[in-house]
């Protein structure tokens, strides 16, 4: 249940407006379809912001009729009106390794979204990472709809495959049909055979550049549930989607537009997937479009198209997170006049993914109107009086400005590191009028890149992450920095208000079973690798904001004065692959839930070039290993505003508490590895680690007695015999038998395997292997025959 507390400085009105057409829907289609390159050169993306032309493939379809004027009204519907058959689940993040069908992440249900990153690392994962996802259908002839949506410049060229049971054959492959990124991938309507488990495989066309992050949406449909369209279903007479949210239709004549209504709740993410060759005959395919609306003022659809580039079987996909509960529409037509006709057929389906409950959240608002002058830095602050560990942040800005692309907007935390990170920059168009409400959170479907803003919920720009504030303490003064990067006359604006919602991370639970703060010693941690620079002490990396790369300051540890960093007083080195490795951590006596905690701060070049991750490994089986955290960062430093006078900003992730569930390693001996790797040029502040802990919730194996007698081969007691109890880690205990040959070890950890050995004059004994699950009082050790 969300707990909201409003702290308001003055009066504020925040919120988007969602419109649905009540009369005629038509007018011209104004394309803004500038398809970006799927690859960007190494240096060109290091120090420049991504731009809307990098993403391309977006049309804004306004709903205007110059003859009669479009009349629009706000329509809202309760969340209960949603079709339950098409409600999907947010399935979190991929796990690594998942690079084969045998290690595939399992997708639950028939609809959902999972987030991942195609690493293409230099060590592990391998140079060309594969991400496999398994899904199961009980319907013969079911069809799968999926899209791999990624939006970062230079990290677009994905490949998405549908693979049969057993990991073969490839049923369908798509390289270039995707949305929001020039090389994103979609498949729609792939026919599956018999019921069983099938796979989606996400890879990168490039063998060197990763795709990070990406969202993989999927839906599995029974063809028996499809419903044909009913004409007329355009021009203000949209057709209601059936309960299955699965329809078929035809764009049969020039100018034909088909629209369909559905309901969604506030915060829902809507995924639409369209099959443009449902017959699978590759006959006279047409360049179709699919979109979601209606948003903004005036009301418009956000429509995808791939500018005529499609693989053998064309498909389209769109995703959007809505701001308010209401009735929305799906829009479909042809991109190019003359594509229509009897063969211009389609099937499409939608999936609605409810927002994740954020937990306990508090909203703080500054509603004091603040002028935004030309070519200057404007700062507004919110003082948070509460000490909370941040699980996630949501930022809402309400700004009126005559030329929105002038604005670069950043958020600064009160942390000692003065963590300064972007929210959005150079977005929108000069024709926007009125207050624009940008509502930003990391788990939304799309970054804030398009001209339609009111009515939608967005992520920050692709280069930015609100997650860089995760784990910090909320207490103190937060700053919103707005840089107007134009000196054009009469383009001053106003910050009407802004809000910061802090969702609190739950306090650690369970028993603390391991704690290392690195104050007294190095804790037994070792480090090695190529260009290894892990050092223990107090960080002293100075900030550098004069020339690129812009370096963030590292001046303290999370606690105390000692922590680990990749070079205490400088950046990490080029061409490095360096590991900081914990000593053996013994979890053999623990069953149930175990969680790993650590504190970290980092600043890195784009994951295309430099990467960091945390890995847990079973020391008794090296193949039993898992990446439990990775960063999906873009380059963490940029020039914002008009020249250096307005800001060269070294962005970073501030000192924060992170955690990972490692319950699958209960009962094992493990090590934890902190890995950094870099390419041959351009290095940033690096990575610092502190305060590593393990906490356990569950059953601890009891300590029990183990004993018996040492006997000769004929059954006589052997007194004063030396008895050794050794565990698998080489730890041993020693005792001696009494006059009647009895021995006893107290407080032996249950749930482990031991070796018992005895020695005495004139006797030889063979070792005894025993697994201790409960107390043992009759474990006799008998001398070899003839002794």
Summarize the structure.
The protein is an all-beta fold.
Polypeptide structure, described:
The chain is an all-beta fold and 787 residues long. The chain folds into five domains: 20-84 and 225-353, Jelly Rolls, CATH 2.60.120; 92-223, Jelly Rolls (Sandwich), CATH 2.60.120; 358-504, Sandwich (Jelly Rolls); 511-697, Sandwich (Jelly Rolls); 703-782, Carboxypeptidase-like, regulatory domain (Immunoglobulin-like). It contains one helix and 56 strands. The strands form twelve sheets. It has a seven-stranded mixed β-sheet, with no helix packed on it. Strands 1, 26, 27, 29, 32 and 35 form a six-stranded mixed β-sheet that branches. A six-stranded mixed β-sheet has the order 16-18-25-20-23-33, with no helix packed on it. The longest helix has 4 residues, at 52-55.
Task: Itemize the secondary structure elements and their pairings.
Blueprint: E1 6-9, E2 20-21, E3 30-31, H1 52-55, E4 58-62, E5 72-73, E6 89-93, E7 105-106, E8 111-118, E9 131-137, E10 143-149, E11 158-163, E12 170-174, E13 185-191, E14 196-204, E15 211-221, E16 227-228, E17 239-240, E18 246-250, E19 258-264, E20 269-275, E21 288-295, E22 300-304, E23 315-322, E24 326-334, E25 345-353, E26 361-366, E27 370-372, E28 377-384, E29 390-400, E30 407-412, E31 420-425, E32 435-440, E33 456-457, E34 476-484, E35 493-504, E36 511-516, E37 526-530, E38 534-537, E39 563-566, E40 577-581, E41 585-586, E42 593-603, E43 611-618, E44 621-630, E45 638-639, E46 648-649, E47 653-661, E48 669-677, E49 686-697, E50 703-711, E51 722-727, E52 732-736, E53 742-749, E54 752-759, E55 768-772, E56 781-782
């Amino acid at each position: 249940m969300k707990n909201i507390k409003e702290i308001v400085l003055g009066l504020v009105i925040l919120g988007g407006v969602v419109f649905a057409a009540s009369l005629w829907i038509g007018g011209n289609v104004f394309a803004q379809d500038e398809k970006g390159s799927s690859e960007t050169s190494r240096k060109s993306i290091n120090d420049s912001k991504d731009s809307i032309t990098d993403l391309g493939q977006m049309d804004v379809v306004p709903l205007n009729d110059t003859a009669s004027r479009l009349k629009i009204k706000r329509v809202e519907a309760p969340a209960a009106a949603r079709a339950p058959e098409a409600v999907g689940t947010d399935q979190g993040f991929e796990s690594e390794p998942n690079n084969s069908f045998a290690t595939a992440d399992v997708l639950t249900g028939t609809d959902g979204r999972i987030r991942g990153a195609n690493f293409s690392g230099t060590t592990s994962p391998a140079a060309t990472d594969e991400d496999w996802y398994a899904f199961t259908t009980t319907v013969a002839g079911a069809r799968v709809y999926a899209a791999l949506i990624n939006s970062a410049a230079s990290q677009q060229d994905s490949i998405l495959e549908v693979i049969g049971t057993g990991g073969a054959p490839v049923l369908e492959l798509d390289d270039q049909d995707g949305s929001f990124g020039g090389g994103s991938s979609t498949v729609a309507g792939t026919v599956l055979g018999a019921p069983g488990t099938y796979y989606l495989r996400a890879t990168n066309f490039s063998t060197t550049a990763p795709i990070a992050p990406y969202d993989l949406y999927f839906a599995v449909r029974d063809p028996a549930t499809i419903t044909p369209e009913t004409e007329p279903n355009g021009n203000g007479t949209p057709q209601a989607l059936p309960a299955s949210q699965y329809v078929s239709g035809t764009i049969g004549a020039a100018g034909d537009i088909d629209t369909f209504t559905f309901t969604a709740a506030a915060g829902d993410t809507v995924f639409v997937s369209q099959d443009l060759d449902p017959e699978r005959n590759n006959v006279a395919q047409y360049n179709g479009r699919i979109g979601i609306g209606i948003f903004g003022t005036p009301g418009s659809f956000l429509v995808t198209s791939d500018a005529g580039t499609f693989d053998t079987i064309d498909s389209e996909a769109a995703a959007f997170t809505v701001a308010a509960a209401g009735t929305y529409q799906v829009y479909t037509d042809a991109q190019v006049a003359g594509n229509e006709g009897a063969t211009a057929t389609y099937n499409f389906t939608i999936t609605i993914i409810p927002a994740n409950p954020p937990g306990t959240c508090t909203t703080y608002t500054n509603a004091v109107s603040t002028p935004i002058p030309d070519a200057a830095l404007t700062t507004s602050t919110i003082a948070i009086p509460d000490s909370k560990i941040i699980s996630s942040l949501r930022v809402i800005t309400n700004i009126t400005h005559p030329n929105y692309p002038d604005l670069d907007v950043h958020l600064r935390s009160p942390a000692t590191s003065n963590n300064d990170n972007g929210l959005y920059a150079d977005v929108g168009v000069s024709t926007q009028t009125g207050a624009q409400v940008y509502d930003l959170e990391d788990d939304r479907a799309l970054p804030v890149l398009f001209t339609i803003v009111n009515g939608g919920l967005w992520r920050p720009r692709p280069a930015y992450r609100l997650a860089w504030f995760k784990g910090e303490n909320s207490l103190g003064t937060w700053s919103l920095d707005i840089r107007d990067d134009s000196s054009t006359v009469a383009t001053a604006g106003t910050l009407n208000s802004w809000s910061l919602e802090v969702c609190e991370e739950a306090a650690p639970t369970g028993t603390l079973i391991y704690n290392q703060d690195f104050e007294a010693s190095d804790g037994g941690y070792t480090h090695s690798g190529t260009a290894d620079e892990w050092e223990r002490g107090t960080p002293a990396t100075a900030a550098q904001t004069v020339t690129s790369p812009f370096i963030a300051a590292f001046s303290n540890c999370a606690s105390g004065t000692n922590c680990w960093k990749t070079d205490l007083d400088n950046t990490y080195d080029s061409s490095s692959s360096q590991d900081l490795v914990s000593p053996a951590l013994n979890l053999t006596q623990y069953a149930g839930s175990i969680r790993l905690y650590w504190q970290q701060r980092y600043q890195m070049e784009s994951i295309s070039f430099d990467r960091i991750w945390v890995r847990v490994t079973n020391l008794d089986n090296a193949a039993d290993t898992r990446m439990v955290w990775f960063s999906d960062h873009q380059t963490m430093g940029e020039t914002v505003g008009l020249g250096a006078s307005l800001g060269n900003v070294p962005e970073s992730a501030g000192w924060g508490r992170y955690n990972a569930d490692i319950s699958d390693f209960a009962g094992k001996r493990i090590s934890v590895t902190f890995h950094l790797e870099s390419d041959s040029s351009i290095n940033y502040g690096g990575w610092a680690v502190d305060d590593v802990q393990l906490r356990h919730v569950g059953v601890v194996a009891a300590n029990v007695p183990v004993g018996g007698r040492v006997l000769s081969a004929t059954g006589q007691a052997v007194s004063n015999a030396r008895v050794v109890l050794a565990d698998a880690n080489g730890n041993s205990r020693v005792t001696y038998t009494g006059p009647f040959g009895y021995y006893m070890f107290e407080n032996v950890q249950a749930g482990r395997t031991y070796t018992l050995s005895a020695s005495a004059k004139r006797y030889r004994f063979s070792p005894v292997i025993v697994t201790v699950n409960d107390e043992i009082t009759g474990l006799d050790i008998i001398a070899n025959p003839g002794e």
